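so my prof wants the structure for this chain in the tokens format not the other one, which i didnt know existed until like an hour ago. anyway here's the sequence
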Amino acid sequence: MDKKYFILALILIIGVILSQNHPHSIEINMVGSTSVQPVCEQLAQAYMETHPNITINIQGGGSNFGIKSLRNEIAEMGMCSMELENNYNLTTYELGHEGIVIAVNPANNVTNLTDYQLQQIYSGNITNWQEVGGVNKTITVLTREEGSGTLNAFKKLIMNGSDITQNAIVLNSQGSLKQAISQNPDAIGFVPYSYLDNGVNAVAINGIYPTMDSIANGSYILQRPFLLLTNSEINNQTQDFLNWLNSSEATFIINQNRIVRSF
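here's what i got, hopefully its the right format
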């Protein structure tokens, strides 16, 4: 059995055991993108506070893992942070759009890169910060694992079919990638806009920094959708949760997570 599916199955079993103490509780399982996961955890918590008969279990694993879990009917909702090239007969609900931040250590003096320079760094053709206006230090390239929605979006928007250098260090979560940048003054990586804090600096792309406005008007080119996916037939409890996402309470949480809504 795939390790991710084993872990998910174990989590769901634990959820069933815990729910036995609340015999009237109905479970909704949400699986997928670690980028979408933080805002979904906050949304789920707020929803459960006013719907005590509902338990929403959330597990990461990546966008592709969420799609597979949904298609195998072991989850009611999938979290996805990339455009679907194949709709898999799934129904999509768009939470909004989020920017992908090109992040460096605060000690790095590089503040702007062109999309071409970024592509050259990640393809391994530019290997020293001095080549893009920085200090004479080797660039430490950080990336995400295959199946990551952030990685897929980055490849589509920046790489233009080129492969990411084999010298890149692969990390399996947004949190670990951001932490690695904060600890390495020579590192570069990409993280969701919602992960941006004092531990890392955002680099402008083609002179445009990621902001709510630049994401909303499209001038900041590195952005992707945050999606919730369901099968074509869903239960009433899942539909009620999706309807609640249009509420003012849900909208406030989404805005707090720097996700730009299109309505």
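also thought this was worth mentioning. Confidence is low (pLDDT under 50) at residues 16-20.
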